[in-house]
Design goal:
14 helices, mainly alpha, AbiJ_NTD4, elongated, Abortive infection protein-like C-terminal domain-containing protein
Length: about 300
């Protein structure tokens, strides 16, 4: 039997980043673990039947993890006849975070492999599998757990390039430079996003962007109109030369990006009356706005630091 590169093994190889983050990586709430068991039931319950799922799903997961961990049984607390399904559930509920992620990954990898091979058994439909994977990632986000299931494995969100290169540096810079208002608003934006409040996430994304520029202006002694919106603040930033004059030609497109990026998304979808029909803001757009905000904040604060 091959040695599987399970999550806990990869995790031991990885170095934990020291910067602050909007996600945590050390705990998985019990509520989240119970939700995963409900997802297992949706995937392996009625579609497979109890006997088939016990033999085809839960028994292989037991055997694979026991071999990897050097154990004879996955659970030593079950009384009576040993049930592989019950052992998997008991293990998920009581194991540490890395081991819980191991069994979650194995179970969803089975679904993902079956989906990619177009080899789904019984009544399990492709859209059901995709819905379950989507639900798992949404549950991770709701629990503030910084993980997601992608292409058959669980990855830490802070290992993705965009999060590592934009969000975490923005949080670190705002904290270290004591941009307290912008820091609070930026974190609030992610909190809204985590709970599916996407319009509110857009509003706080723009607030943090504007607060960053206002803080820079105040510390530099630059005047700006009371209640100035993002566009006027951007004008001040460029007119005062925060972006060096020799680089302004190179950054000719930057001004348009700043003016047309976060403010436009927020104004059109989140910041004004929605009219007769409710306006739905999709999650991917809120995510884009938050990451665009993070990139802008990093650029502005780094430019501010360099100008001192």
């Amino acid at each position: 039997m091959p040695i599987y590169d399970i999550f806990s093994r990869r995790e031991k190889r990885a170095k934990k980043a020291g910067a602050s983050d909007v996600y945590q990586y050390d705990t998985l709430p019990r509520e989240f673990r119970v939700q995963v068991i409900h997802m297992w039931e949706d995937a392996f319950g009625e579609s497979y039947g109890p006997r088939t799922s016990e033999a085809a799903i839960y028994k292989p997961m037991n055997e694979m993890l026991c071999r990897e961990y050097g154990r004879f049984r996955l659970s030593n607390t079950l009384a009576g006849q040993y049930s592989y399904k019950a052992a998997c559930a008991e293990f998920l509920l009581n194991s540490d975070t890395a081991e819980a992620l191991d069994i979650i990954e194995l179970s969803f990898r089975f679904l993902w492999v079956e989906l990619t091979k177009n080899n789904l058994l019984y009544q399990l439909k492709p859209e059901t599998v995709q819905d379950l994977i989507t639900e798992l990632n949404e549950r991770f986000r709701e629990s503030c757990a910084g993980y997601q299931f992608e292409s058959g494995i669980i990855v830490r969100i802070d290992s993705t390039h965009l999060h590592a290169e934009a969000v975490k540096p923005a949080l670190t810079l705002l904290f270290e430079e004591k941009f307290e208002g912008a820091d609070e608003e930026f974190r609030n934006g992610f909190e809204h996003y985590r709970h599916g409040r996407y319009k509110e996430a857009l509003v706080d994304a723009l607030k943090s962007f504007e607060s960053t520029m206002k803080t820079i202006c105040k510390r530099k002694g630059w005047d700006y109109p009371s209640g100035a919106p993002a566009k006027q603040l951007i004008n001040v930033i460029f007119e005062k030369g925060l972006i060096h004059q020799s680089l302004q030609t190179h950054f000719s497109g930057l001004r348009q990006t700043l003016e047309a990026g976060v403010p436009t998304i927020r104004n059109k979808l989140g910041g004004h009356g929605q009219g007769e029909e409710p306006v739905e803001v999709p999650g991917y757009l809120a995510s884009y706005a938050l990451h665009l905000t993070a990139t802008n904040i990093v650029m502005l604060v780094e430019a501010f630091k360099a100008s001192r």
